[in-house]
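Hi R.,

Here's the chain you asked about this morning:
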Amino acid sequence: MSVPQSIKDTLLWKKAIELVEGVEVFTDNIPCKELDVYNINNKLRNSVSEIPVYIEESYLQPTKTGRGKTIFMTDFTLNECKDYLSQAKRLKLGETDDLVERVEQLRLLLQGEQVIGYQQPA
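And here is the predicted structure, written out as tokens:
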């Protein structure tokens, strides 16, 4: 198995970027911006955009404590993102099940667990 040369070569990073792109597509397709009275669109975009930043910061931290803090912030932000997706679904702004599943898969990867259906390239 090859060792990633940078964070951007890891499965975790790639899945985080896929989540960001998925959320951007979702928020671009909210049928009526006037229905978004809770400003879910902006909150969701802001929270999901932080995830790759925290992942990169955790990769660059020189200490376990520093990595732990940024991993905690990543997990917190994933929870926030999941909450906004659930709220968007309750408000009938669109279907979010696929994005929620991506959040959960990313959380498993963050915790070091293997996600079924995904394998690191050899």
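One quick note: Confidence is low (pLDDT under 50) at residues 117-122.

Cheers,
M.
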